[in-house]
Amino acid sequence: MRKNEVPQDDANMLEGKTRELQYALDENGSYVEVKSVGWEPKNIVMQQAWEEVKENINYAIEEIEKGNKSPIYFFMHKNIMDEKILAEYTGFWIFIVKRHLKPSIFKKISKSKLQKYKEVFKLDSVNELINFDAKKELEKIKFEI
User: Fold this and answer.
1) How confident is the model at residue 144 (pLDDT cuts 50, 70, 90)?
2) What is the bridge-based pairing of β-strands 20-25 and 31-36?
3) Sign of the alpha-carbon dihedral angle for 8, 12, 13, 16
4) Vertex 53, ends 58 and 118: CA angle to 5°?
5) Which letter does DSSP use for residue 35 in this model?
6) What distance in Å separates the CA atoms of residue 125 and residue 114, rounded to the nearest whole number?
7) 120 in the same domain as 76
């Protein structure tokens, strides 16, 4: 693809913040780096994916507030993980991660296991897990690409 053919479709839905590095041929036939706002179909798919992430996070908060899930559930979704991925990052068996998602089990988790979750989720302290504050956590999230 030539430099002037790199997709620059309108990215209004993403507020023009997406810039993707592409390689294209310049006038001399050499490959050069060109930043692109993307191709409209790809931008639409990215927007839909971020909407799904937002929905999952909001659902996680509802489940925590209802007492059905532990705060680990929120951070798992915030980090776009599922139980299997979280198990791989923590080194826990998947059935252990699933147990930790239960509020009654979460209350009994050892400090060392909470520390592991803190590290995986890149939290400042274990207290962010123990004293989960949905409003505060939502304020931290930025859905900008």
Assistant:
1) very low
2) antiparallel
3) positive
4) 80
5) E
6) 10
7) yes
Q: What's the pLDDT tens digit per position in 35-61?
A: 877 677 777 787 888 889 999 999 999
Residues 71 and 48 in one domain: yes
Q: What is the pLDDT of residues 69-95, one digit of tens each?
A: 999 999 999 999 999 999 999 999 999
| pLDDT, tens only, 96-116 | 999 999 999 999 999 999 999
- What pLDDT, on the 0 to 100 scale, is given for residue 94? 97
Greatest Cα-to-Cα distance within the chain, rounded to the nearest angstrom? 66
Helices 83-90 and 111-121, axial angle in degrees (round to 10): 110
Residue 13: CA count within 13 A, CB half-sphere: 15
pTM: 0.74
Size of the chain, expressed as the number of residues it contains: 145
Closest CA to 114 of 71, 54, 52: 71
* Residues 84 and 50 both lie in one domain: yes
Residue 145 domain-assigned (yes or no)? no
User: 24, 5 in Cβ contact below 8 A?
Assistant: yes
Question: Which are the contacts of 7, defined by CB distance < 8 A and separation ≥ 6?
Answer: 22, 36, 37, 38, 39, 40
